[in-house]
């Protein structure tokens, strides 16, 4: 298989196992490019990409922009906070105005679930979902799987627990789809109020006890509490949450095995994870950041090859 089965990257659930393998193989090539003294290739010098972010973002936006520039694409950055969206302009009008500048690809983050899917039906450009509400964040799941693959030699057969705010997390859903597609076993752990009722229908088991979850898993992916998406209190206090679902070094050291610690960022140090865990040898958090550029280069490169 030499090309993706899709024209857009809207979510992991639209990809095949072959798509994932192709993205990872392509990322391997670009990771080698990023290790050179000259980290730029002319692959997309005829492609124009617009980064349209309707939500605040630092890491994802920078990672996409760097990936695009490493591929020599022309880049337009658009922030809704300084745009006509605040004056009442619709999503389609905003994007069509940008596309009139002859943009080939749109990387979009939006607070509404399904925004990328909606857009893909109304514009001709290729759409990359950089996060849509609490729905999906496909490139984060891809870089997470790629990082596990790099650390443990593969994803198939591995046991992965996702800990924290599952209910509001687009990262959790995309990771569940990606990990299961590759043959991993997935469990979730967190306060009952932050576990969606439908999660078991996805073939995921709920483990309410953090220690049991850590004793079971090979990899623990720690999620932050997404206060910005909450319209009510889901647990008594932050201190209580940390006591039950936060990982610290004594807890990690008390396990009879070494497990891999991951976090999609930004980290709330001292809440879901302590600094000595985040900075420990078992953590691959910085590897995830590094791999994010290679994965996004791979996704953009492969989608650009389908632009006519």
CATH architecture of the largest domain: 3-Layer(aba) Sandwich
Helix content: 25-40%
- Number of separate strands: 9
Contiguous helical run count: 11
Low-confidence stretches: 227-232
How many strands, which pairing sense, and closed or not: the largest β-sheet?
Answer: 5 strands, parallel
Spatial strand order of the main sheet? 7-6-5-8-9
Oligomeric state of shown chains: single chain
Describe the structure.
The chain is an alpha/beta fold. It has 2 domains: 140 residues, Rossmann fold (3-Layer(aba) Sandwich); 151 residues, Aspartate/ornithine carbamoyltransferase (Rossmann fold, 3-Layer(aba) Sandwich). 38% of the residues lie in helices and 14% in strands. It has 11 helices and 9 strands. Strands 7-6-5-8-9 form a 5-stranded parallel sheet, with helices on both faces. It has a 4-stranded parallel sheet with strand order 2-1-3-4. β5, α6 and β6 form a beta-alpha-beta unit. α2 packs across α11, α5 packs across α6 and α5 packs across α11. It is globular, with a radius of gyration of 19 Å. It starts with 16 loop residues before the first helix and ends with a helix. About 2% of the residues have low confidence.
């Amino acid at each position: 298989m030499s090309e993706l089965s899709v024209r857009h990257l809207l979510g992991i659930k639209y990809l095949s196992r072959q798509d994932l393998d192709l993205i990872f193989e392509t990322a391997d090539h670009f990771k080698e490019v990023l290790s050179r003294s000259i980290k730029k290739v002319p692959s997309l010098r005829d492609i124009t990409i617009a980064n349209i972010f309707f939500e605040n973002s630092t890491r994802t936006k920078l990672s996409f922009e760097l990936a695009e520039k490493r591929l020599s694409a022309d880049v337009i950055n658009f922030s809704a906070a300084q745009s006509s969206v605040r004056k009442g302009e619709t999503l389609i009008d905003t994007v069509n105005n940008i596309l009139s500048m002859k943009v080939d690809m749109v990387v979009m983050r939006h607070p509404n679930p399904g925004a990328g899917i909606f857009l893909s039906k109304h514009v001709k450009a290729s759409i990359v979902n950089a996060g849509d509400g609490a729905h999906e964040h496909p490139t984060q799941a891809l870089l997470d799987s790629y990082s596990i693959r790099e650390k443990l030699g593969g994803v198939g057969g591995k046991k992965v627990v996702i800990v924290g705010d599952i209910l509001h997390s687009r990262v959790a859903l995309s990771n569940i789809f990606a990990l299961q597609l590759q043959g991993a076993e997935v469990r979730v752990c967190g306060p009952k109020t932050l576990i969606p009722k439908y999660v078991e229908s996805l073939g995921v088991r709920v483990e309410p006890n953090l220690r049991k979850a850590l004793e079971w898993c090979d990899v623990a992916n720690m999620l932050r509490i997404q206060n910005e998406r909450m319209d009510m209190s889901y647990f008594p206090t932050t201190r209580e949450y940390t006591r039950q679902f936060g990982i610290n070094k004594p807890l990690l050291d008390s396990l009879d095995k070494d497990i891999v610690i991951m976090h999609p960022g930004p980290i709330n140090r001292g809440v879901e994870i302590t600094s000595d865990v985040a900075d420990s040898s078992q953590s691959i958090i910085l590897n995830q950041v590094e791999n994010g550029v290679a994965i996004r280069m791979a996704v953009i490169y492969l989608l650009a090859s389908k632009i006519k």
